[in-house]
Amino acid sequence: MACSFVIRSYWSDSLKYLVCALCLLVSVSAIGAEKKPIAVKVFIAGMFEIGANQGDKAGEFQHWYERYFADTQPIMIPGALTPVFCNKNGVCGSVLGMGKVASSSSMLAIVLNSQFDFSHSYFMISGVGGIPPSQGTIADVNWGSWLIDYDLGHRWMPEEGEAGAPVFMPRQGYEDIRRYQLNPALVNFAVSLSKNAPLKDSPSAQAYRIRYPEPQARRKPAVTVGTHIAGDTFFHGPGLSAEAQYMSELYGADDYMIAEMEGVAIAQVLARTVGTDRMLSLRGAVNFDQGNPNESTLAHLDPAPGETAGGFAETVENIVIVGGSVVDHIVSHWSDFKDGYTAK
User: Residue 320 — φ and ψ, nearest 5°?
Assistant: First the structure.
């Protein structure tokens, strides 16, 4: 912004200095106004996208992008995997990257970037995951009540321990970062608001479900709540699923519901910066965390053609149907949420 003052030769030196000072003040104020940080109401984080943000097969971010960011411009952030997008209503989002290191690195770069004001922000961590057939089914959408780190501890081969005993033991020193309980009032609000969301289903998902005998695995998709366990190792099979449930019980958390790869690491970033009281973790179930009784764990991990689980497309759409209702409510009732959420 150019200064509009014109210095006259016949002015006194003191007047010239005063005019120059005013000009400088106006210029600095203009620059400050132009660079005012974006006040973020809700930040939406996907972990991966399959291709583009629109127009092709959707991953974890495309439906969010189409709902909130289609008319926005990318904001480049040093250290983040992908640009951030922000709309005029204070909703921002980005793809952080898969795994604990990639996702937490991007989240830290974004939270610390001076282009954003996260002092009142809510964080919607959104992605897909696996689910135990005893707890849910393909295309379920699950709100995380607890986030647990699968990797922080000691493990050994089953044959090297007591027969039938757990093969995991927590490591001392990680007590504050191996598990996080998310704000119960906020989680309960999100569940209550979204529990009757009209979830999508498909014939392919229905056909896949009937391979499993568990009633929960065979039912229609639903909105549920429970513990999300994140590991950089894609743990799989009935034995490791039982171990995940053992860890949940060991840590005093709710039942293990979702296997994923990022949540607890992002929680640690937020705990160190802006806090986790406004954090939500939302995951859609795109696979069971183990095979059916007629297939081995390896066969389930590396299925033959035509044997893969159906329902991926419906699940990533369900995530946004469920999560979008909460995002919209927070934004439209901002005065009730700006200073934090407590049970009404």
Answer: -75, -30
Residues 135, 123: Cα–Cα separation, whole Å? 26
Q: Which domains does the chain have, with CATH numbers?
A: 36-153+167-203+210-329 (3.40.50.1580)
Sign of CA dihedral 308, 313, 314, 317: positive
**Using one digit for the tens of pLDDT, what is the confidence trace for 106-135?**
999 999 999 999 999 999 999 999 999 999
Q: How far is CA 66 from CA 59, 106, 331, in A?
A: 12, 22, 17
Residues 6+ apart with CB under 8 A from 75: 83, 84, 85, 86, 115
CA 262, CA 228: separation in Å to the nearest integer?
Answer: 10
What DSSP character marks residue 9? T
CA 218 to chain centroid: 27
325 touches 194 (CB < 8 A): yes
pLDDT in tens, 222-281: 999 999 999 999 899 999 999 999 999 999 999 999 999 999 999 999 999 999 999 999
Amino acid letter for position 16: K
In angstroms, rounded to a whole number, what is the distance separating the alpha carbons of residues 344 and 338?
A: 15
Residue 326: in which H helix or E strand, if any? helix 312-332
Extended strands (E) in the chain:
38-39, 42-46, 85-86, 91-95, 116-117, 122-131, 141-149, 154-155, 168-169, 179-181, 223-230, 256-260, 279-288
Only one residue has tokens 């003052």, namely 5
Whole-structure pTM value: 0.89
Nearest to 309 by CA among 61, 62, 143, 137: 137
SS3 of 54, please?
Answer: coil
